[in-house]
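Example 3.2
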Amino acid sequence: LCLLLVSHTAGQEVVLLNNGKSMPLFGLGVGNLPHDKIVSTIIDVASQDIRLVDTAHASHNEQLVRQGIDERHTANDEVHVVTKVWYTYLGYERTIISVRESLENLSSSSSNIRVHMLLHWPYCRDDIPWMECEKEEANLPQYVKNAGPPPHLDKQNGWKESWRALEDIYTGHVNLGDDNLPILESIGVSNFDLAEMTELVQLARVPP
């Protein structure tokens, strides 16, 4: 949920979030872009003053996103990155792993990267053919499996534990072990339906 207050900053339209911070309203989605096109595309859109890039942990391209931002030669400008926790990483400890990996991938010593972290899906859905819950779980690295139970076996609670993890990271109650990681600008969700959003708003300590 964001406060849909749109303003213009340095020629850009930005949206004001619930936490009082702003982010660009328009950006570049690279989640399904071929990996060999990501860096050059991010560099190319710098001339159009695009300062928002959308991707996901499951796209395995966050390091390329960071590389493209680094090579834009706009070190003093904020560039916002939206990335997401995949449904196989739902659950408290698994979500911490996902967030840490994403922030490590996006960590930069030369660019001002602001990260917005979303839960990609509330759960793996049986009614979507390309979601292969058991197969994806079987293919996870062992350290992820060891971190918590398979989330597709507890669809009602996995995302709630993940939201609690996001809140704890966002508020500093969880230390990810590296002070050089980017700070989360905001936390939120995608692909949540009305019932799940209603539950989330009721239980959230940090408004999404």
